[in-house]
Write a structure and sequence with these properties.
By secondary structure, the chain is α+β, with helices and mostly antiparallel strands. The chain has one domain (64-357): B-lactam Antibiotic, Isopenicillin N Synthase, Chain (Jelly Rolls, Sandwich). The protein is built from 8 helices and 16 strands. Strands 2-3-10-7-12-6-5-4 form an 8-stranded mixed sheet. Strands 1-9-8-11 form a 4-stranded mixed sheet, with no helix packed on it. It has a two-stranded antiparallel sheet with strand order 13-16. Helix 3 crosses helix 6 (160-184) and helix 4 (101-115) crosses helix 6. The chain is globular, with a radius of gyration of 24 Å.
Length: 362
Amino acid sequence: MASSTHNQQQHHPNPYGTTAAPPPTPSTQPHPHSTSDAAADALSHLLQRLPPSLSIPNRRSSPPSTTSPPLVSLSDPNRTLSILSASQLGYFQLTNHSISPELARSAESESLSLFNLPLDQKETSFPKNWPLGFDGEDTEDESFCLDSSCSTESAELSLTSLREFTGEMEKVGLEVIEALSCAVGFENPSRVCSLMWISDGSPGNKPVMSGKFFPYVVGLQYQIRCQKYSMLTDSGWVSVLPQVDSVLFTLGDIAQVWSNGNLKKVRGRATPVLGDGNNSPHCISMSVLLTLPLDSTVSSLLPRGAAGDGEEGGDNEAQDGGAGKRKERRFHSFPFEDYAWRVYHERLLLKDPLDRYRSPET
């Protein structure tokens, strides 16, 4: 990662941290001799005054039904169009790729061994240039963020399988990004890097969307076994069950900006559904995120052959994915490092973190 990220706590005093709330102000207590009858009468009076068209909402909304993600075969001669069609939801599953099941299982075994290390070894054996390293802030949701080489600070840790697995996943991810750039019409980026994000959770011990969020172009998760995932898309919550040995692809916020809003996205990473009775005591999640160097600037990428440089103040129009018409840019350019730091610490998943960069016309 970029050297400018060293000692982020000094460069980025966290302005997003929360402060302790003041103690609650004592409120007037009900009279000790007041009865429940009076409260029931008050509630009855309130309900009678409600308009007849109003209905009382259910205490909990029903969970989304589980579906199979759109299927794309990497051996399909028309895979570019298939990827474009499937990605309109913001996610799909990829089959007939080059990643072997044996390599994925070996990488998972190495990942699991990391969580069995003593705490002091976890904290000293990995780089600390954000976002790389060990994060044990939440003891029920520990995670490791590694670079594409799965580098460590310890000669005792040999992550050969994890390193090879990350490299193979990265190759498949770059192939998909190239297909998307051809199909949608944005420039094929040259500055892309990879992160291996490993998290572990016990069933029932954490909420669906726990875990920190780092922006990415595409995210990849290999389906080692039958495992449901939950995701927050632009259209709402979805629950998916990919095929075993497929790769679950999610499109991130950077892909949406590059495509000038033509691609849907998933906010954060696809998260395994825990506590459904089908999981092992530990559920390892290995996510390869194809993202950007921290010193990058994020902006919509002009189609090939379009005039203008796409920066604010220049030609402010872009052709809409080859549709034959001109369209204003939907996003302002912004520094990637500032954006990544903010969403990483605020975990802005329920509110779209891209909203502040959208053009007023959109």
